């Protein structure tokens, strides 16, 4: 959808570690191998009786059809936890919002580096960038200040071109 | 093109929908096209009674894209404060009525994947236009609608025919009485938004139930008929930026007292549901009677909805 939420490095869904939302009735945990240890540890603190949870492990690559079947079968009152590397999280997040999850119903714990993207206001191209407040466009080489605004439509920070000294 | 403001209308037609519900068709006196509106919108109507103006808000029930006229449906409330009784007993075809531009505090959640409506009695009215809008967009929805009997259920036949399989009716005084309950919210698919319209007790019950089932607050929408009632204590209100101290007596709301004192206080629904009349509280404890603010907001922010809430003690200091 045009204005669907997007996972980006400052997303309000990103947390340092898994913490269960006690307002929800069910907890769906989608995780990859990097997060498996932490997820299992977090779950051992709760019995299935006191915490209604459903774990789903991503093995190697995400099987989109299985993921969609899982997400679309969820009912209201379900909270989704994504614990994985950035690429897996971005895929699960996009599929989850398409299925109907809102940012209020998603918690994301990223293992490893987060990715950042910028939308060049000069050549209208979105590209991945490294850390820093000033970057160069990957397509037109324009120097740009990063953000502070993030565009859900362009899926990147707005890049403001400037002429370097 | 119209400039925002009030529109002079005349009553072109009146239809008896049920024993207690009438539908009034309002046409613009200047015959220009009216502003379009979105599902769930309402207008404020002003009827000149000679010595005062009768001001009431009613949901629009005409088609959102039909700009030739507006229609409103009014239930004659046996406990009417004058509004519905006057419209039913005195308004006739040809009468002049002033209408505001359409306003909408009860909009459809545009992120929703499925919409679930709960109406009690005349609370059906905002859902008529919402369903029109969703049907035109090919989106999914369902209606749960409670009334005393089939005969008292406004628009029953119309809804039954127009939206087959999407409407469930509950008649509390039929041979086999059925009660509408919040339980039907439990198994809604992810991405559902729920909407309630009815008396305060019904809306409060359904809102609490939705939260207890794990719905996020942003997926819950509601509109009220009237503000919650309670004991009305007299109190003083000091408005610091107007240098005024106003007495609020038990027969009036804080909003009425402010308006009577010549202060242009904002307002809209007058039922504690829309938040338009929110004012900053500088000093004093608030007796919150709205269902607009969450408990967290009440704790974190110092504010009051003047249409329904009052002072807990003798005095409030406000800034507006």
Describe this structure in words.
- The complex is a heterodimer of chains A (165) and B (320).
- By secondary structure, chain A is an alpha/beta fold.
- Chain A has 2 domains: 26-110, Rossmann fold (3-Layer(aba) Sandwich), CATH 3.40.50.10140; 116-162.
- Chain A is 19% helix and 32% strand.
- Chain A is built from 3 helices and 9 strands; from the N terminus they run E-H-E-H-E-H-E-E-E-E-E-E.
- A 5-stranded mixed β-sheet of chain A has the order 6-5-9-8-7, with no helix packed on it. A 4-stranded parallel β-sheet of chain A has the order 2-1-3-4, with helices on one face.
- In chain A, strand 1, helix 1 (36-44) and strand 2 (53-58) form a beta-alpha-beta unit.
- The radius of gyration of chain A is 18 Å and the shape is elongated.
- The mean pLDDT of chain A is 92.
- By secondary structure, chain B is α/β, with parallel strands linked by helices.
- Chain B folds into 3 domains: 6-100, Elongation Factor Tu (Ef-tu), domain 3, CATH 2.40.30; 114-224, Rossmann fold; 235-319, Beta-grasp domain (Ubiquitin-like (UB roll), Roll).
- Chain B has 6 helices and 18 strands.
- In chain B, strands 4-3-6-1-2-5 form a 6-stranded antiparallel β-sheet, with helices on one face. Chain B has a 5-stranded parallel β-sheet with strand order 9-8-7-10-11, sandwiched between helices.
- In chain B, a hairpin with a 4-residue loop joins strand 12 and strand 13 (244-248).
- The longest helix of chain B is centred in the middle third of the chain and has 13 residues, at 125-137.
- Chain A binds chain B through residues 1, 4, 23-26, 71-72, 74-79, 99-102, 104-105, and chain B through 111-114, 185-192, 211, 213-219.
